[in-house]
Amino acid sequence: MQKAQGKVTSVNESLVGAKTIQGAVMNGEVAYIVIEDGKRLKAEVIDVKSGNTVYLQVFEDTGWMKVGDPVEFTGLPLSVKLGPGILGSVTDGLQNPLYELGKIEWFLERGLEVAPLDNTQKWHFTPYVKIGDKVTGGMALGSVPEKLFEHKIFVPFSLQGDYTITHIAAEGDYTIEEPIATIKDGAGTTTELQMAFEWPVKRPMPFHERSVPVRPMPTGIRILDALFPIAQGGTACSPGPFGAGKTVLQHSLAKHSEADVVIIAACGERAGEAVEVFKDFPELIDPRTGKSLMDRTYIVGNTSSMPVAAREASVYLATTVGEYYRKQGLNVLILADSTSRWAQALRETSGRKEEIPGPEAFPMYISTLISAFYDRAGVEILEGGNSGSLSIVGTVSPAGGNFDEPVTQATLLSTGAFWGLSRALSDARKYPAIDRIDSNSKYPSLLEKEEVAYLLELLRDGKSIASNIILMGEKGITDESYIRYQKSELLDAVFLQQNSFHEVDGVTNPERLRLMFNMVREIIDAPVRIAGKDRIRSQFNFLRQAFLDWNYMDVNEEGFEKQKTKLLNLIKQLVHVAENV
Q: Are 295 and 364 in contact (CB under 8 A)?
């Protein structure tokens, strides 16, 4: 079938108008615009008008493009190539490997395209099926070892109906382009299959069977695991102003969360911070495996200095790869930083299309797009009873830290956990700077429900008493209230805050979390009735420091139990002092 051709009729930054010559094209179709020096710039059809007029968003710089430049339509949607070799790689939003592009040109030139997966590497294939077996889309033909995992080789998900295996490759080494199976449908049509296949990035993969996310995903961050958890297959957002710690929080999640695969989507993040990820992650050792963290990581790098239109592509690319590894039966975590810049890219494109603007000039359909993105998360029950999950954590960068702006509000409606970052807490050098009162989660915690409510009640009381201290001073409140306030401050300092640079305190496993909570509860429940604000403050400062010293000790360290005993004795001493007052 002859593919449609066209000519450029207008250029408005990344939005290009074109007139088709040989008939209609479909919305979402990939096209190439051939500019004067012969380079082919990749674009996507985003609007089809009457009279064979279409609008395309170009994923690269449109400088020197002019009216009359030829347009070649492919007839195919924007897709990602799925197969072994994704893990450990770093690509742009169009799946071009950045390290391979860097070998061609020091500065990324327009129009460059590199094969997304290495087509020369041999993979050791082990078949699961035999000639005569019935298969359908999504069934595993066999597997190859990829880094830490057995990577299943699927019948492409787009093939529906029953097929019969007429050929299957013997166990051995093959490239992703060599045929490993041939299947035949009921009409006798044969299809040759390879290890890799393509899937449209904007089309969610079908669930075999969907389940509700209920299993907590430990993150190593105490305030999240205890008060505002995320479940495997759940969603969360972390809005906050510039400098509040969004990126540091995401890096910690990537390193310490109990996820099999981590996908980092730098969808418009500043180049300096993205480069930090590219440099640091290959050097990090995964504490769970003792090997490189990159063995279970995939990075999509689309920084704020790269073309605006590619931000949207990078978000959908990362999500599609996440769905693919969920089909492998793995627990996948996507960290999108920052979805606000993706939304800003949508706003720019909408404005150039002269659409009716919504609040703050964002498109009217922004809530629908954000909801559809987070809806691709979830737990999938696979054939055979195994399951995989896809969790999504997106950062939001509202201007001035205003959580009432449209992107933050739309995200809050679409996610199950809200980690609101506070400017006041970050300025006070508290990490994580997650607001203890306004944040929330609908997922189950590593603590019991009653225990979570117990801690939140103390934090609310402490905030209320702190407000009274600001208004009336310490002399304006009772000693009993001041003790309650000091317990709240101690909870915040020793349990909710962490030193992200410390080897022990930087990450807390579920067993240590339970141990720490029990100790905190001993202090909170202690019937302390010391008289005098100065004595109360002095005693709690001493107790706080002893607890922090304990936080920095490994459970296998020689002085760990000794410091724990010291803490318990300090609590008994407070009670004994109270009884003698």
A: no
Q: List the chain domain ranges.
A: 5-77, 82-116+207-441, 123-195, 449-580
Q: Is the pTM of this model over 0.90?
A: yes
Let me know: does 191 contact 163? Beta carbons within 8 Å: yes
Question: Cβ neighbours of residue 207 under 8 Å, at least 6 residues apart?
Answer: 378, 380
Query: In the chain, count of helices (H) and strands (E)?
Result: 14, 26
Structure tokens of 505?
């305190």
CA atoms within 13 A on the CB side of 466: 11
Query: In CATH, what class is 5-77?
Result: mainly beta
Which own/partner contact pairs does 117-122 have at CB distance under 8 Å and 24+ positions apart?
A: 117/81, 117/83, 117/84, 117/85, 117/86, 117/176, 117/196, 118/85, 118/176, 119/175, 119/176, 119/177, 120/175, 121/85, 121/175, 121/176, 122/173, 122/174, 122/175
Across all residues in the chain, what is the average pLDDT? 91
Q: Domain 82-116+207-441, what fold?
A: Rossmann fold (3.40.50)
Distance, in Å, from the CA atom of 393 to the CA atom of 234, rounded to the nearest integer, reads 9
Architecture of domain 123-195: Beta Barrel (2.40)
* CATH of region 449-580, choose from 1.20.1000.10, 3.40.190.10, 1.10.1140.10, 1.10.1200.10: 1.10.1140.10
Q: What is the mean pLDDT of residues 380-389?
A: 93
pLDDT tier for residue 581 given thresholds of 50, 70 and 90: very low
